[in-house]
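Batch 3, record 17
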Amino acid sequence: MKSKKFSNFRRFLALFVFFCTIAIFAETELLNVSFDPTRELYEEINLKFTQSQKGKTELTIQQSHGGSGKQARAVIDGLKADVVTLALSYDIDSIAKISNLIEKNWQTQFPNRSVPYYSTIVFLVRKSNPKKIKGWEDLSKDGIGVITPNPKTSGGARWNYLAAYGFAKRKWKSEEKATAFIQKIFENTLVLDTGARGSTTTFVKRGLGDVLITWENEAKLALEESAKNGDGSFQIIYPEESILAETPVAIVKGNTDKKGTTELAKAYLSYLYTPEAQNIIAKHNFRPTDKKVMKQFEADFPKINTFSITDIEGSWEEAHKKHFADGGVFDQIYTKK
Amino acid sequence: MLQTRPYSKTHFGLSFGLTSFYLSLMVVVPLSGLFMVTAKSGLSVILDVFLEERLRSALTLSFFVGSVAAVINLLLGFLFVWVLVRYDFPGKKWIDTLVDLPFTLPTAVAGIALTTIYAENGSIGKIFAPLGIKIAYTPLGIIIALVFIGFPFVVRTVQPVLEDLPKELEESARCLGATPFTTFYKVILPELWPSLLSGMAMAFARGIGEYGSVVFISGNLPGKTEILPLLIVTKLEQYEYGKATGIAVVMLVISFGIMFAINVIQNRAARRLL
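Prediction for the assembled complex:
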């Protein structure tokens, strides 16, 4: 009697384990670890992509958003991401270097050096531009209040910084002048928020400062929001030239190999390059890399001369070391005073 | 002298084992991890905190605003407890409950709310701005945030002590001819002193490590309004774990020193009473 009961229990256990296994294998999950401003973008992309996979697999895509550097650190520390879609290649490089979860040649694995969409750095000013801000040089004038996040804590802020620095370096062909220029801008800076969204709030909601240096998509979003509230109290200013803010993507192969999702992750990231996804991207204010789609949205994205990070510094690695690492140019700006 | 003895030596072993196991799991192991990572990066990361200008000014700022806020909390908290315990008024229960809100509110929410109110276009900031007083994005703003989050500590540690204080003590003092001031100073204050101190110490400890509410209201300008916890986050953001833990260790050691000193004073005060 006792032994029969026991075997019943065993049978139950076996069935239980069996069904659990089925449940695990029937449903595939992808985790996309991304940075803050892409939340709405990926909600739409994920919906479309899972629909396209219907019939092949029961797919759910999880999203995780936060500061780009913070997200990279989470992946290094063991967040089981399948793909990362971050704000700058330095963060993906760091994952590859520190944890080996991403292959060193990740930039060769997708078109356009693994950059499916990009953005640039522009200015948001108050309506009718009372301080007459037209370009980068205006930001260094006395009496201009600048709002930008802290390059030490925000990936977006590093783009802002390098955009200003690159402009100066290319214009005056001198590193000293460029550094002095950057120093002037940061002397004009009233608040250094820890992230891009925090700076937008400081500028828009707290009414602080005359100009916000920010991503084009963030500026457009702020504009849309203020239009919704019925006050068109801001406008975007495109400087004469700005930086090409490339936002790369990569497969976290160390994780996908274990989960068996490598192929799916590849399909997911490749999907970002399809006209359908590129359209969604443009709708969410990022600039699509697909030339045809870009042409359709020409009116939304004014032409702007851009330079890339390699035009001003050799690579992200070098730029980081020189400017943002401890004792770098950014630290010197604040200790010189 | 006050001494507690275990009830029974024979049954103490297991509970003591459990207690120390739990304490090591929750406190000692994580903290020693901190020291180990720091040790790996060498002594220089600790010296940096005192030598590097940016770190040093953040260190001074953090401890300065932390202590100012703690003292404010001590004074206002005491006043608040006094009113709450000694007087009856309508809505007393409500106010008593409200005190705990800073405990339950996520600090980031508190930070954003305070910044909204104290910014130049905020409802309170608007009043001060024409007088030339800026609150948000200055050390003053940080102090306000720290007063807010540290407030319940003093109230909740002093309140039970004051409630338990026998009325007869005061009455006898008055009968023996003491003035109200002497009664307060010689009879009531010595009783409350230890709990006031420990409440202040807790508010202080909480204040120097506070991150969430402060980053929004401080403006984070290096050398001016940048606090030490933000620099820890900054170092982590740059994958410099050693430097981050170095700063953390310095903070930990200094605050432990201060808390220990306060504890000693408090013990002395308690001993004098008995």
